[in-house]
Structures are given as structure tokens and as C-alpha cells.
Write a structure and sequence with these properties.
single chain; about 250 residues; about 70% helix; mainly alpha
Amino acid sequence: MVFQDPYFHAQQRQREAFRYEQARRQLAATLAERARSFRGQGPPELSEAEREERQRWVIEDGLDLYLPLLRYIVRRIDRHVKEGLVEPGELAPEELAVDTYQLALQRVLELPQRPELFDWLRQLAREVVRTAALQCHAQRHEAQPVTEPQPAPAAAVTGMLKELIDALARPDTPLPDDVLAHPDLRRALDPVLARLPERWQEIFLLSALDRWPDDRIAAVEGLLPDEVRAIVRASSLFLRDWLLEELREAGT
């Protein structure tokens, strides 16, 4: 049984929330300054006032999605690492997040209705990360595919995996903080999570990791809250079965 210290993990989450809020405010200031530099350069279909209003929406509403968007960018980078386009650590997720929001400021003519904002930002992030990865690949002139096998989970990680499996069997119960915060466990979970459809991954992580309520997830994903709950529950059970299968194959 893995020891959990609720007070320690509550403090850890507070520190992470403080760092995130600092980063979000700094990014908002950076984007506001860059938006001012676009004056007179907007699409002719929009007046200057309309362009500024849309850019303000990107900064205010879009930055509420910064953390899940940053996590999405990290996963896209990992995918390109596995493809051999980039080396681990070669791309900076925070810089690519800034580039994504800046691209959004430039493309405000394409700005969707509010429920589709998160999906639109993900599409832009996919484009930004792919372009950066291809540029890195071109500069090196050759790819270095990552073929190293995943190491077997250590005893402590195995214990937390079993705890996670138990928690996933109860989709309506929040996942344990210590399990979600452990980097080795997250690395073990990511390949299994990648088996889910991409949209299901995002919905599950918004619920399990970001602790968003169903109605807020439904708003950004353009779904009904009941549909969100159904996806989270199905994802939890799929992940549980796949993790059980991996533990059995590993003989633990």
C-alpha cells in the first residue's frame, strides 16, 4: 500500500497552481503586447475594432485553456520524438504554446464559436509543433529514431499502477493525487493513454488531471455533459483493462 500524505499533496497542488497562474499572467501580457503590434495588419474582412475584440477573446478565454493545451503540445512533441523528427528536449513546449497563441491572434478571422475554441487551438498547436519538428529535422539532415524499449516498472511504480487500476475501476471517484503527480507512473500511463481516440484522451485528462467539471468540458468540446461522463467512464475502464494486461504480461 502506497503511503499518501494528503497535506503534502495539497501543498504540492497549490505550488503548481501558483506557478501556472504566474505563467498564465506572463503569457497574457506577452500576447497583449504582440496583439498591439498587429494593428493595421488584420484581415480586410474585419474592422480594427472587430479584430481587437477577437484577439481579446483569444487572450482572455483562450488562456483559460493554457494548461491542457500545453499538455497536448508535450504529447505532440513526444510523438515526433518517437518518429525520429526531433531529439528529446530539442523543442520547448512553453515556447511552442506562445507560438500557438500568437498564430491564433493572427488568424482571428478563423476564430470559431466558443464551444469549439479548444479544438481550434489544438489544431493550431498541431500545426505549430509539426512545423517546428520538421525544421529541426531539416537542420540535422537525418533522423534518429527512438527505439529503446520501455523499462519494466520498478516496485514502487508497480504499486502505484495497481492503485491507479483500482481507482480507474471507479470512474466517478477522483484519481489519487500522488499517482497523478508521479513522473514514472505518468510515463507508464502515456503509451496506454495513446490507445484511446485523441478526443477521448483530452476529455479524460481534462476530467482526471485538471479536475474540470463535466459541464465545463462539455462546453469546450461541444458535447452534452452526459456524453462527457460516458466518455470519461469508458476511457477509465479501457485504461484499467489495458494496464491490467500489461501488468500480467510483466508478471507482476
